[in-house]
Amino acid sequence: MKKVAILGLLVAPLLMVPLAAVLLLATIATPAIGEELKTLACQSPTVATGTWRPPTRQKYTITSGFGHRASPGGIGSTYHEGVDLAMLPVPGPVLAASAGTVKTAGPRGGLGNAVVLDHGSGIETTYGHLARIDAAITPGARVAMGQRLGVEGSTGTSTGAHLHFGVSVDGTNIDPVGFMAKHGAPLAGRAVAPPPRLDTSFTQWLPADGEGGIGFPLPAPGRSRQNSRHNPALPIPAPVKGYYVKAAHRYKIPWTLLAGIGMEETGHGRNNHTSSAGAQGLMQFMPATWAGYGVDGDGDGRADIHNDADSAMSAANYLTVAGATKGPEGVRRALFAYNHAQWYVGDVLWYAQAYGGGTVAGDPTGCGPGTGAGNPDLPPLADGRVKTVLSWAHSQLGKPYRLGSNGPDTWDCSSFTQAAFRQIGVTTPRTAQSQRDWLAAGNGHRVRPDQARPGDLIFYDSYLGPNVAGHVEIVDDPTRHQAIGAQNPRVGVTTTDYTHARDSKHLFEIWRVGNISDTPTKAGAP
């Protein structure tokens, strides 16, 4: 196999991705102390991970809030029993915010064509001003979260196309913004994709103290392919498949992805000789790259470039360092880093699908490569905002931990952190790794452990493998090395001494969130 450039890390191609391709907005270079700056958002849409989601899949803006407001007719005032969402750039489908039963569907006075869903426990949601209601949405019908109810419109008492979205609890209308934020689905105006469809085997190795919102299928091969067009996927010798499976289990990637590389490079060892470029071994590493990423795969205490077990394990190590867990595009970037050719990426993914495909244990959204130390020029969170975050965190002490929970009564580690920062108007991604990459993309910067301050975030690896952040906590008292977070099902939300993580984990990083906000004011809180 001709290696096109696997020398050094192949971090270089990752760093070459334009920041503008990752971010929607940019901060100013030298902000004033105390000034709030706009939160930088990942370009790809948020993925629905809990039991609630915004009632649209596309971007939107809130045009009218909950409570007293001027009458839409221009005379007097009315009490608005919901919020109005205008989808961007044009009207689009209206989706069920959570699973439930259709209570009513049809004309409803000033709301025009409207649907009311009963979600149990006294909770109902209302969707008004629809241009039309889908035929399947009839009283008594069961609907799933994200199921289409109809299309945004301007029926009833309306001055333009929008969705009236209302929430009531035990018959009392409440502000949907606060309700949705507490249920892990903030109305932040961002596009929200449906949860990815995962293979059932994916959950077999997940521990009870994992986090929700993880996992995405291997991406499709695409049109750019070369060898796979005329070379079929060969049978894998049993010992070699064992090496792929062992490496995949340690680094939590599909073994078929390693099999795709092994097939493309050497036919699983059938053509295992040094290439004209100098690449060696089962997975064809260049010696210079091996020096940085070669790991011991068979437990003999050394990493041998010609040892098949070591070679397979090192390929898994390399792929995860290069970002294979950071969304479908992360898989493609990692394969391109392995060998700089788009047809190579297509070949490997085609072979991986031929061997059964699979699910990557990572954030389905991704937040770019996540390289670098972030933006050290950002001012830190104002003291008052840190106090708000930690006060809320302490109010949750003793609440239980449950994998995939988005609150408000149970949490996992990353949903807890996400909710804590939502208290000050900062929307973070859902998973620990994506939160870390979101900070690296310009929402914060990395600090040394001895410089930790209250409100900083601690990331370290856990069940997702040595190179992926699988757990996150909030620094509570750095003088005592104390952090607060949703730990595991045994202890729930509690405070811990984070020195154990620093001393025992492959990955241990502390990051400081900048003084940012989804809707910044001219100056931060005192």
Strand element count: 24
- The outline comes out as globular
Radius of gyration: 25 Å
Structural class: alpha+beta
How many angstroms does the end-to-end distance come to? 60 Å
Mean pLDDT: 87
Portion of residues in beta strands equals 15-25%
Main sheet properties: 10 strands, antiparallel
Q: Percentage of helical residues?
A: 10-25%
Uncertain spans, ≥5 residues at pLDDT below 50? 4-29
Compute the number of helices.
Answer: 13
Describe the protein in words:
The protein is of the alpha+beta class. A hairpin with a 6-residue loop joins strand 4 and strand 5. Helix 4 crosses helix 5, helix 4 packs parallel to helix 7 and helix 5 packs across helix 9. It is globular and about 80 Å long. About 5% of the residues have low confidence.
Feature tags:
526 residues, alpha+beta, 24 strands
List the helices and strands and how they pair.
Layout: H1 12-15, H2 19-22, E1 37-38, E2 46-47, E3 60-64, E4 67-70, E5 77-80, E6 83-87, E7 93-95, E8 100-107, E9 113-118, E10 123-133, E11 142-143, E12 148-152, E13 163-169, E14 172-174, H3 176-182, E15 192-193, E16 216-217, H4 238-251, H5 255-266, H6 287-293, H7 308-321, H8 327-338, H9 342-354, E17 359-360, H10 383-395, H11 413-422, H12 432-443, E18 444-447, E19 457-461, E20 469-477, E21 482-486, E22 493-497, H13 499-504, E23 508-513, E24 516-517
Parallel strand pairs: 1-24, 2-15
Antiparallel strand pairs: 3-6, 4-5, 6-13, 7-12, 8-9, 8-11, 9-10, 10-12, 10-13, 13-14, 16-17, 18-23, 19-20, 19-23, 20-21, 21-22
